[in-house]
Design goal:
457 residues, alpha+beta, Glutamine Phosphoribosylpyrophosphate, subunit 1, domain 1, Rossmann fold, 2 domains, seven-stranded antiparallel sheet, 17 helices, 23 strands, binds guanosine-5'-monophosphate, binds iron/sulfur cluster, binds magnesium ion
């Protein structure tokens, strides 16, 4: 999964992109990059690690120009290399192309095979690189037409930002899988995965980039749009509302906070927990859903689990003594709240079940009498091919166990998941027009032929 940010027409473009990336850090923590462009010259900084660690003032001073874009990347271990850090940048006889991608192209391996057979040389294992090659070959004149040509036959999920010459181009796939929003900061045009990144730079939200739309911003500020053939239906990723996006953002035109609260309320209707003493969340991703559950059930909300915010993803366990060690570093229960109580633990999702099992053990060790778990998304039974890093089917606890079986595995007294219809009815602008493949098994595309080659953007 990834976060993207772009700005055109501002003297401090790179500094604002840097700021925007801070607000998109949750969408990817493995690498970050900023590229600026000015009168045919491009400047790039890409590095592994967090936004806060990578862009020193000295480095930032090299990123001159009124046009900049940035990317935060999350990928699986195997492809977590600097070559795969974005934005991707190529220089060729026609100038330069810069590209930042959020999503996953399901037929990238086939397109790549074709391009390699014609002599193209790839410099990364990223699916997104096929678009760069196709852009370099495109015959159309205008940048937005070049991108439309390059995207012909490209399948899967993409929200894209591209720099061709001095033009910034933004595009969303016709199914609208991933979010992308457009805003204004004085005279400058700004694009970002989530509105929280527009807030941090002080831009006002104008509208979403529409599914299938390509928006080009020329160096003089002129905006041109091109609408590609609309898809018969939308496949907006419902998991953006459930887990991925920040609650202070709007994605797909709806409030993430309102979505999560509605999911929590619906969950409380479907799976109440009469007799419990209180509700608590697994911070931070389920805070809003737990609030909704508390509102609907009338149970008080307690802060029974505290999260340590300083544990990085690269944390290495000093010893491998038990799975719970990792959970303990990240979370600590509040014994004074839990002791002797029957509690409802709300989480947004269960993926492998390993964190959840560790958490339940911690809650019990802190004295809870009964633990009732409620989950604000349905069981995840399949992988995602469209940009979220869910593991293979074999590692998904709900692919192997029934709800009763999962309850036993994670050690809770009761377990309730929101229903598929409940989830789709609770999110803004539902129930139609959402992808729910990882929950329902209804994949809107044929499965990719080489899923292990699909790497995330
Ligand atoms: P599990 O019990 O499956 O090991 O972990 C469940 C937790 O993982 C939940 O708190 C949920 O918020 C979180 N989670 C769900 N999806 C993802 C994801 O794509 N990446 C990460 N890092 N955590 C996730
Ligand atoms: Fe989102 Fe799941 Fe569809 Fe992937 S499969 S796009 S996570 S709803
Ligand atoms: Mg969580």
């Amino acid at each position: 999964m990834c976060g993207i940010f772009g700005i055109s027409g501002h003297p401090d473009a790179a500094a604002l992109a840097h700021l925007g990336l801070y607000s998109l850090q949750h969408r990817g923590q493995e690498s970050a990059g900023i590229v600026s462009a000015h009168q045919g010259e491009v400047h790039a900084i890409r590095a592994m690690g967090l936004v806060s660690d990578q862009f020193s003032p000295e480095k930032m001073r090299t990123l001159v120009g009124p046009l900049a874009m940035g990317h935060t990347r999350y990928s699986t271990a195997g492809s977590s290399t600097i070559e795969n850090a974005q934005p991707a940048l190529v220089r060729f006889k026609g100038g330069h192309i810069v590209l930042a991608h959020n999503g996953n192209l399901t037929n990238a391996p086939e397109i790549r095979d074709g391009l390699e057979a014609e002599g193209s040389i790839f410099s990364s294992t990223m699916d997104s690189e096929v678009i760069v090659h196709r852009l370099a070959k495109a015959r159309a004149e205008k940048p937005e037409e070049k991108l439309a040509e390059a995207l012909e036959g490209v399948e899967g999920a993409y929200s894209l930002l591209v720099i061709v010459g001095d033009t910034l181009v933004a595009a969303r796939d016709p199914f609208g899988w991933r979010p992308l929003v457009m805003g204004r900061l004085n005279g400058a045009l700004v694009f970002a995965s989530e509105t929280c990144a527009l807030d941090i730079v002080g831009a006002t939200v104008e509208r979403e980039v529409r599914p299938g739309e390509i928006v080009a911003v020329a160096a003089d500020g002129a905006v041109r749009t091109l609408q590609r053939t609309p898809a018969p239906e939308l496949h907006r990723c419902v998991f953006e509302y459930v887990y991925f996006a920040r609650p202070d953002s709007r994605v797909f035109g709806g409030s993430v906070d309102r979505a999560r609260r509605a999911l929590g309320r619906r969950l409380a209707q479907e799976h109440p927990a009469p007799g419990a003493d209180f509700v608590f969340s697994v911070p931070d991703s389920s805070n809003s859903a737990a609030l909704g559950f508390a509102e609907e059930s009338g149970l008080p909300l307690e802060l029974a689990l505290i999260r340590n915010h300083y544990v990085g993803r690269t944390f290495i366990q000093p010893t491998q003594s038990g799975r719970d060690a990792k959970v303990k570093v990240k979370y600590n229960p509040v014994r004074e709240i839990l002791e002797g109580k029957s509690v409802v633990m709300v989480d947004d999702s269960i993926v492998r079940g390993t964190t959840t099992r560790g958490l339940v053990a911690l809650i019990r060790a802190a004295g809870a009498r009964e633990v009732h778990m409620r989950v604000s998304s349905p069981p995840i039974t399949g992988p995602c091919y469209y940009g979220i890093d869910t593991p293979d089917r074999g590692q998904l606890i709900a692919a192997r166990h029934s709800v009763e079986g999962i309850a036993k595995e994670i050690g809770v007294d009761s377990l309730g998941y929101i229903s598929l219809d409940g989830m789709l009815g609770a999110v803004p602008d539902g129930p139609e027009g959402f992808c729910h493949a990882c929950f329902s098994g209804k994949y809107p595309t044929k499965p990719p032929t080489v899923p292990e080659k699909l790497r995330l953007g």
